[in-house]
Write a structure and sequence with these properties.
The complex is a heterodimer of chains A (404) and B (394).
Chain A lengths: L6 H12 L17 E2 L14 E6 L9 E3 L2 E8 L5 E8 L5 E8 L18 E2 L3 E5 L4 E6 L4 E6 H4 L14 E3 L2 E6 L6 E6 L5 E6 L10 E5 L2 E8 L2 E5 L6 E5 L10 E3 L2 E4 L4 E5 L8 E6 L10 E3 L2 E5 L4 E6 L5 E6 L9 E3 L3 E5 L4 E6 L6 E7 L9 E3 L2 E5 L3 E6 L2
Parallel strand pairs in A: 1-27
Antiparallel strand pairs in A: 2-33, 3-4, 4-5, 5-6, 7-8, 8-9, 9-10, 11-12, 12-13, 13-14, 15-16, 16-17, 17-18, 19-20, 20-21, 21-22, 23-24, 24-25, 25-26, 27-28, 28-29, 29-30, 31-32, 32-33
Chain B lengths: L1 H16 L8 H7 L9 H12 L6 H7 L5 H20 L6 H9 L5 H14 L1 H7 L9 H20 L3 H14 L3 H13 L7 H5 L4 E9 L11 H4 L6 E3 L5 E3 L1 E4 L7 E2 L1 H4 L5 E11 L3 E9 L2 E6 L2 E6 L11 E7 L2 E11 L11 E7 L30
Antiparallel strand pairs in B: 1-4, 1-6, 2-3, 5-12, 6-11, 7-10, 7-12, 8-9, 8-11
Helix pairs in contact in B: 2-3, 3-5, 4-5, 5-7, 6-7, 7-8, 9-10, 9-11, 10-11
The chains are: A mainly beta (404), B alpha+beta (394).
Chain lengths: 404, 394
């Protein structure tokens, strides 16, 4: 049967496709899972009562970042005395109106350290569906309207896959695969899941060691390669098959995640180690290492030509990405559990554990704090950016700041 | 409204009594019950979920009812379908089967989480009527419903204490303790009873912790290899036997009783804070009757548990945290003697938070209610705090 599109419909479709694409924030640390969104050239710039667009109450704590798809924003939470009630919520970007909520009972273990929470991982999206992973290893897929597409109880399938301190690694969609690291001291694995059915496309054993880092995505010759970080180092693999592409031995941090930028990976390993992917069949080449640059809990950020690290004392270090040379340092109001994110205008956004939001202009010879706001709530999460807007979740609320 | 309820009641009967007469939710519910491991049945379940959520509120009680006996995943599919339909109907101000939902909540034969969900839906329809149901949940088999009743008793007991009515407060807080099954509430009630009303509370008995054991250690766990290694106590239990332990030293079983409120069995007490070792704890449990039960364990060391000679589960995680009821292991108690063997392994870490070499274990039913052995011994008395030795200058 031939498909025939009426002329008016074709024209509408053409106009739709020709429209500027709104920047979505689809997973932990946005594009490539690395925290830098060069396409968002105008960020909110100021965090203040004047730029606070709205805030809504959340039904439970969580550390996962909001995910933005079009005019909708998605966030997870966990509640109940044992955190056994899982929430997936959808709000309107425009005014914070609650559009829908889905609740689930955790099917896996919900124990975690008091500081963290079962809703620690950030959901991921491919623009059509939301994939929400919880520390209980419940992995749930819904469409943008909240219709259930599939569910997995990974602890039901793999009973020793859990961490009594809590899991926190966030999944990411790469091509037609959802990649997740379910890494812990016991039944440790990473897997690629079919986006439509939720079945395993591949599953591979991982180091038996607790690991809270999240996958990042490198690109080489038009091909996406997922970097899995662990106490063993880095494993690069093809997302659709799980086939190994390269390994970088020598160990790496299990808390802050690496940042990918094209074919370069900035790894929290022995301080900071930077590698560049080689030609097919070749192992990555080390570009530089600075053993005295040690990130704390926040992940590494590479924005343009600069590399940013935050240590556990709240000192933000800006270094030359090509050489590792320190350009400037400044002490911020820390400590930080969430990671910095940046747009194409060189502005960095960070929120301290005490709920102090800070905007740092990194475009000059020194860092300058442009604005600061005290939200009065614990914040252990990472902000999500949108054109002229920023979203952050605190223990009790989801906040939107928007450029006036 | 009555006609609606009659229709609902008939639908309900047809669903469970006459399978041949398929209601619109019958087939989708059957499909949801088929979801299996590793994503099996997800595609069909999504279609079934869409079919269910296209229905009106007449599906609410039948689907809640169908959660009985369904797998945890299937219950989640059904529960979200119920909430989705309810939310839409509420927003559209469609007539709701409020009385049927209330009846579902009050029927203790239904699945506990389904009843909790139904209660929350009912509270959104009729908040005052729902609140009036709460005191009746104090002996409810659903822990999630019981929790609300305990919270109310706690609140009342506190208020009575503050108003100076100690006898009333004592009665209320004792009722709260009898009803409480969750650790935070038990702790809160116990604190008030002990500190404000000078009452003795036998927490190990309340929880059903096993306080009397036989211990043997140390066996070798160098390089964490002892977790998988089969030492003699795993092959046979002979309490008067002597074995060769770590570094060739002889090891023997010894009796051990813990006075700890939360039943902690501490290997460090008899054996010292040693590292890279494995130990075993053995006890017997005399059951009044054959029945379903749970062994609930808390342990921050690598562990294995055998029940009546069969390995229930094992986990090789070290020092990531411990809490009461960290692991729930379903068992079938035999009438009379049942045996429990625990293996607890200590690793090589030397940080101060890796000293613990211990576990806590209780026997209870699925609601967390203690099942006590017929020959349960009294909880050991806590040793009096050691007297401070006077400083030389005193």
């Amino acid at each position: 049967m031939r498909l025939f599109l009426p002329t008016s419909l074709s024209l509408a479709l053409f106009l739709f496709l020709a429209m500027p694409v709104k920047a979505d924030w689809l997973n932990f640390r946005g594009p490539h899972g690395s925290g830098y969104a060069p396409d968002i050239t105008t960020t909110v710039g100021e965090l203040s009562a004047q730029t606070l667009a709205w805030k809504v109450t959340l039904p439970g704590r969580g550390l996962g970042s909001p995910v933005v798809v079009g005019e909708r924003i998605f966030v997870t939470a966990a509640s109940g005395p044992e955190q056994q009630q899982l929430h997936l919520l959808c709000f309107s970007v425009k005014d914070g109106t609650a559009l829908w909520e889905r609740r689930f009972w955790a099917t896996g273990r919900t124990m975690s350290h008091n500081k963290t929470n079962v809703a620690a991982p950030t959901p991921a999206s491919d623009g059509e569906r939301i994939y929400a992973l919880y520390s209980s290893n419940d992995l749930i897929c819904v469409d943008l309207e909240g219709n259930l597409v599939w569910m997995r109880g990974l602890t039901l399938d793999y009973p020793n896959a859990s961490n009594s301190l809590g899991m926190a690694s966030s999944p990411i969609v790469v091509g037609d695969t959802l990649v997740a690291q379910i890494e812990n001291d016991s039944e440790s694995f990473a897997a690629g899941f079919d986006l439509v059915t939720g079945v395993n496309k591949w599953k591979l054993d991982r180091p038996k060691s607790a690991n809270w880092t999240s996958p990042t995505v490198l690109h080489k010759d038009g091909e996406a390669i997922v970097a899995l970080q662990s106490s063993d180092g880095i494993l690069g693999l093809l997302p659709s098959t799980g086939s190994s592409v390269f390994t970088i031995p020598g160990g790496a941090s299990t808390i802050p995640s690496a940042a990918a930028s094209g074919d370069e990976l900035f790894i929290p390993a022995n301080g900071i180690t930077v590698v560049k992917l080689g030609a097919s069949g070749e192992e990555p080449r080390k570009i530089w290492n600075q053993s005295n640059q040690r990130p704390g809990t926040p992940s590494v950020l590479v924005a343009g030509e600069k590399l940013f690290l935050i240590n556990n004392a709240g000192v933000l270090t800006c270094a030359n990405r090509a050489s590792g040379e320190v350009l400037w340092e400044m002490r911020l109001k820390g400590p930080f559990s969430g990671s910095p994110v940046a747009g194409g205008d060189g502005k960095l956004y960070l929120f301290s554990e005490q709920g102090v939001g800070q905007v740092v202009d990194s475009s000059g010879e020194k860092g300058v704090v442009l604005s600061e706001i005290e939200l009065g709530e614990t914040i252990l999460s990472t902000a999500s950016l949108d054109d002229g807007a920023l979203y952050i979740r605190s223990d009790g609320h989801l906040w939107k700041f928007a450029k006036k | 409204m009555k006609r609606f309820l009659l229709s609902l009641s008939l639908s309900f009967s047809f669903f469970f009594g006459f399978a041949a007469h398929a209601e619109p939710w019958t087939s989708p519910v059957e499909q949801l019950r088929k979801v299996g491991p590793e994503g099996a049945g997800n595609t069909e379940a999504a279609a079934a979920w869409n079919a269910l959520t296209a229905l009106g509120p007449e599906m609410l009680v039948p689907v809640l009812t169908a959660m009985q006996g369904a797998s945890p995943l299937a219950r989640n599919w059904m529960g979200t379908a119920v909430e989705t339909v309810f939310d839409r109907a509420l927003a559209a101000k469609t007539a709701m089967p409020g009385e049927a939902i209330e009846a579902f909540v009050l029927n203790r034969e239904h699945e506990p989480n389904a009843r909790r969900l139904a209660f929350e839906l009912y509270a959104r329809l009729s908040p005052e009527e729902a609140a009036a149901l709460v005191p009746g949940f104090a002996d409810d088999p659903s822990p999630a419903l019981r929790r609300d009743a305990v919270a109310k008793l706690l609140e009342d007991g506190r208020a009575q204490l503050e108003s100076g009515d100690q006898s009333k407060s004592l009665a209320t807080l004792k009722a709260a303790l009898d009803a409480a099954r969750e650790v935070d509430q038990i702790d809160a009630v116990t604190k008030l009873l002990r500190e404000k009303l000078a009452q003795k509370v036998d927490l190990p008995k309340h929880f059903g912790f096993l306080s009397h054991w036989h211990l043997i250690a140390p066996f070798d766990n160098t390089g964490r290899a002892g977790f998988d290694r089969v030492f003699s106590p795993e092959q046979t239990i002979q309490l008067d036997a002597e074995y060769t332990g770590k570094e060739g030293k002889p090891v023997k079983w010894q009796a051990y009783a813990t006075p700890d409120d939360y039943g902690k069995v501490d290997f460090n007490q008899p054996f010292g804070p040693i590292k890279e070792v494995a130990g075993y704890a053995y006890t017997e449990f005399q059951a009044a009757e054959a029945r379903d039960a749970q062994i609930r364990l808390g342990c921050k060391n690598a562990w294995k548990v055998w029940f009546n000679g069969e390995l229930l589960f094992g986990r090789d995680e070290y020092h990531r945290g411990q809490r009461i009821d960290q692991y729930s292991l379903p068992v079938k108690l035999k009438q009379g003697k049942n045996t429990i063997l625990v293996k607890a392994c200590q690793n090589e870490q030397t940080q101060d938070w890796t000293v613990q070499w211990e576990f806590q274990l209780r026997v209870c039913d699925a609601t967390g209610t203690a099942i006590l052995a017929t020959d349960r011994q009294p909880t050991p008395e806590k040793a009096a705090p050691a007297r401070r030795r006077p400083a030389k200058s005193e």
